[in-house]
Design goal:
Blueprint (H helix, E strand, L loop, with lengths): L1 E4 L4 H8 L1 H7 L10 H6 L5 E6 L3 E6 L4 E5 L14 E6 L4 E5 L4 E3 L16 E7 L2 E6 L4 E5 L14 E7 L2 E6 L4 E5 L21 E6 L3 E6 L4 E5 L14 E6 L3 E6 L4 E5 L14 E6 L2 E7 L4 E6 L12 E4 L1
Antiparallel strand pairs: 1-23, 2-3, 3-4, 5-6, 6-7, 8-9, 9-10, 11-12, 12-13, 14-15, 15-16, 17-18, 18-19, 20-21, 21-22
Length: 323
């Protein structure tokens, strides 16, 4: 049974306050009439890059501006004054933008320091986790700010890095020789199990990397994929993948973009985040914890799964749910 609710109803207030519970109790009948994410994403045009996290999806437009959808706390995704952006990344609590002049802007500047990037220069790539922000400099070194309780910011000795990625507990760097280095949390904080997600030193011929919550994924130059770490949901079962050009990773799922614009996925599918077999014409992918966003060749964005449990309902949207 499908019910529709206006933005001024008590249901919407309940959704704001108890979104996680409600998102599990309600299933969307038609994805085109989904939550606010889909309503907003359907209006996005001229997107050239995307980034997804637990609470946000951000899109970089061809004019160097950034559009976002997600957390109701607008200060965490306030990018309306950003210009000259050439890359954007999202994390659980902040969004980071790389400007064409090599400087970096952020929506967050809390006491843990994860948004303190105003003095950065000569940056060519960026990454972010829930509690830290990472910048790759033009000389191949890496700068990191934020909370370093588990060593996720210990990158000062890194050299010859050509790409970076990060998750809430970890930072991963791709070297120019195709090897991979990783630092950060090495134990599952719930049961103290070490999943070896930082043991990437023997990897070779890697051209792209992704960091899931407890697993690390790499694309080899021959289009095959290697993964290490937590595999309880099958998120590391990528050995049969072929023709992959990039990968993305969530908490317990992994997604690969093929050279023909189709997408493959493995791992947890409790929220439908792996139901992407019919996707076509995709040129970029990005995972949230339990969702996946895809950028199409026409500059539009699609998504699957669950993202933020807090939705921006200030606009007069009507949301449809299936009980």
């Amino acid at each position: 049974m499908s019910d529709s609710y206006g933005a001024d109803t008590s249901f919407i207030q309940a959704f704001r306050e108890h979104g996680n519970m409600i998102s599990l109790q309600y299933r969307v009948k038609q994805r085109k009439e989904n939550l606010l994410y889909l309503s907003v994403l359907s209006e996005w045009q001229n997107i050239v890059s995307i980034s997804a996290s637990t609470r946000f999806i951000a899109g970089l437009k061809s004019d160097g501006t950034v559009v976002t959808v997600g957390d109701t706390n607008k200060s965490k995704r306030n990018t309306k004054d950003w210009h000259g952006i050439i890359d954007v990344v999202t994390a659980s609590f902040h969004i980071v933008g790389l400007k064409s002049d090599g400087t970096v802007v952020s929506t967050e500047n809390k006491k843990d320091g994860r948004g303190k990037t105003s003095d950065w220069k000569d940056i060519v790539d960026i990454a972010a986790g829930a509690f830290h922000t990472v910048g790759l400099k033009s000389d191949g070194t890496v700068i990191t700010v934020g909370w370093n309780d588990n060593g996720r910011c210990d990158t000062k000795d890194w050299r010859d890095i050509i790409a970076i990625t990060a998750c809430s507990q970890r930072t991963v760097g791709l070297r120019s020789n195709g090897t991979v280095i990783a630092v950060g949390y090495v134990e599952d904080y719930t049961d103290d199990i070490y999943y070896q997600q930082c043991e990437t030193e023997d990897w070779q011929d890697i051209v792209s990397v992704a960091a899931g919550e407890q697993h690390t994924v790499g694309v080899r130059k021959d289009g095959t994929v290697i993964a290490i770490g937590d595999n309880r949901s099958g998120q590391c079962n990528t050995k049969d993948w072929q023709d992959i050009v990039s990968v993305a990773a969530g908490v317990q799922h992994t997604v690969g973009l093929k050279s023909n614009g189709t997408v493959v996925a493995t791992g947890d599918n409790n929220n439908g985040q792996c139901d992407i077999n019919d996707w076509q014409d995709i040129i970029a992918i990005s995972c949230g914890c339990y969702g996946i966003a895809g950028l199409k060749t026409d500059g539009t964005v699609i998504e699957q799964g669950i993202f933020s449990t807090k939705y921006d309902l200030d606009e007069d949207y009507t949301l449809s749910f299936t009980k």
